[in-house]
Amino acid sequence: HSAPRVSVIICTRDRPEQLRRALTAVQALSPEPDEVLVVDNASTSSATREVVQCYPGVRYAHEPRPGLSVARNRGLRETSGEVIAFTDDDAEVRPNWLAGLLAGFDAPEVMAVTGLVLPAALDTEGQLLFENHLGGFGQGYRSQLFDSAFYRGMRRYGVPVWRIGAGASMAVRRQAFDLVGGFDERLGAGAAGCSEDSEFWYRLLAQGWRCRYEPAAVAVHHHRADRHEVRRQARAYLRGHVVALFAQHVRNQDAGNVRRAFVGLPRFYLGRLAQAVFVSDDTVTAEIKGFLGGLVSGALAVPWMVRDGALAPRRKFLAGNPFPHPYTEGFYFRDKMRAIHRVAPFGPLHHILEVGGGASGVSALLYPRAHVVTADLEPGHGAVAAHTERAQFLCADATRLPFSDGVFDAVTFFDVLEHITDDAAAVREAIRVLVPGGVILVTAPNESWRFPYYSVAAPICPTDEDVMAEWGHVRRGYALSELNRLVGSDALRWGTFINPVTVLNHDLAFSRLPSRVRRGLLSVLAPVSWLAYVLHRPHWPGTETAAVWRTPSARSGPARPEDPQPSVAEHVLGAAGDRVS
Question: Does the residue 163 lie in any domain?
Fold first, then answer.
């Protein structure tokens, strides 16, 4: 394979002499990057531009909006590299820095690599305070891989993504920004204070990608010399860290972030305050002020975090329950929708294929900004797409999809696979039409088709044979292990729904009782159903499973290179005549 095209981005604001030092170091890199861009972030003079003009081949971009995340996102738009390397104006990279970072991309699943950052000097009180009290930027001298196992193992307590490294020395595949979005512009210097890099890494881990720390990529950082400046940094760092915890919780529904913000950090700083009774430490006071400021800023930012996400807010998504009587007869579908939302990746997802979506339009509700194509064998189901913005419908066989390879970001099968005779062919087709790194979202009945006490309700419920025949099942369902074998990898996230109590609501809703009697019983049962629904946890027993898989970020070749097929643009962005009205 040829070496990837590499862009180096340095963001700066009113620090021309530090920038000069950083650019001199970048010019000594071996191998040389394909392009170097300086983003001048709301500087108040022309000094930055004048420094850049002294370095032939270095490009300049002026970003008027302040904020490190804003500047980095501007740099992404201005560059063309397949790998984007970031360093700061107060850092100096060593000649082997870029080679070390690139060596860390040893697998397609590795989306970000960070390097070792050492202090340039430890001569002043401020420099020593930054390195010893705030911890500096280095993460040791051993290469470390951060993957799904690390993420899952730490979710309960708050994933310590800051262990991955420092944004002053990192490289990221451009594909990663397409998969999870750019840097959060509420975070970072000039905004909340910091953690724009670690929050980005969090999104990568949450969606099944990997990050690597590679100490062979060496840079040095010029810490603040003055103690008072370091205190201001400490306050900003804690404020940014806490706001990032809010963002991580909102986007990924990981309660460990809340636990860290409201339990872990307060407990830690209570201990520090107890020590400060005997030894005065104004840096701890600054951190506590930053922590409290982060709680306020994070709480105020939550509505905006929810609003601008690609995944619909849970409350809005659940309010779209298409079934009548959503709190009684349609309650089981709410149960299903919540399970889907729990496992669905935050996004952004731009093009989605919903296989066998029927009339519910769940994918369009889940990702309201995405363009959704529903492929179904029943032409009558196209009426929903005809009245839904950014949605289209076409009649198609799931085992022979009429699309080119690699054109959808996600494929969904919501209670569909159990109806397809050749389910393996349908999954192969889904993988074929997915972009590298795309996702498959599935809900399906599992091996807990009936709980033991179903025999009590059997006289008023259809038999298994009747259900199979009436609903068109060709199999009862799947154990999670069977779904994993079908897709070819372990699920990134999974959860159950319709538990041993809410199943009573489900069975009554589909019973043979007269509708008035059925509705009355469901209303009486509603408080119990709601309590069981609220208490249910994703890995508790349930009759159905929701799960998501991430396909590999690179594949050896198409699964079925047979007939020439139209591109997704013809179906997703084509003429209105493609819609069924």
Answer: yes
381 domain residue, yes or no = yes
For every residue of 14-36, DSSP letters joined together read S-HHHHHHHHHHHHT-SSPPSEE
Give all strands of the β-sheet with 371-376 in edge-to-edge order. Answer: 391-395, 371-376, 351-355, 408-414, 434-445, 544-550, 493-497
pLDDT above 50: residue 54: yes
Query: Among all chains, which residue has been given the structure tokens 């009205």?
Result: 581
201 with 322, same domain: the answer is: no
The amino acid at 545:
T
Which residues face 145 on adjacent strands?
Answer: 212
Nearest-5° angle of CA 404, CA 405, CA 406?
Answer: 120
> Would you tell me the crossing angle of helices 331-343 and 502-509 to the nearest 10 degrees?
130
Phi first, then psi: give them for residue 203, nearest 5 degrees.
-60, -40
The answer on 163 and 14 residing in a single domain is yes
Determine the distance from the C-alpha atom of residue 491 to the mean position of all C-alpha atoms in its chain, rounded to a whole number.
Answer: 15
Listed residue (483, 400, 408) closest to 438, CA to CA = 408
Q: What is the pLDDT of residues 269-316, one digit of tens each?
A: 888 777 766 666 778 888 889 889 989 988 887 776 665 557 787 888
Q: Is the pTM of this model over 0.85?
A: no
- Give the dihedral sign, CA 545/374/304/208: positive
Residues 6 or more apart in contact with residue 213 via CB below 8 angstroms:
104, 113, 114, 115, 139, 140, 143, 144, 146, 163, 164, 165
CATH number of the CATH domain containing 225 = 3.90.550.10
Query: Looking at the domain assignment, is residue 440 inside a domain?
Result: yes
The type of residue at 319 is: A
Of 342, 346, 245, the closest CA to residue 537 belongs to 342
| Strand pairing category for 544-550 and 434-445 | antiparallel
Nearest one of 503, 497, 524 to 457, comparing CA atoms: 503
Structural domain includes residue 283: no
Q: What percentage of the chain has pLDDT greater than the value 70?
A: 87
Do 225 and 320 lie in one domain? The reply is: no
Cβ–Cβ under 8 Å, residues 505 and 525: yes
The domain total for the chain is 2
Q: What is the sign of the dihedral through the CA atoms of 227, 228, 229 and 233? A: positive
**Of 34-38, 440-444, 526-530, where does mean pLDDT reach its minimum?**
526-530
pLDDT in tens, 540-570: 889 899 999 988 765 433 333 333 334 443 4
**Residues 196 and 340 both lie in one domain:** no
Domain with 319, as residue range(s), is: 314-578
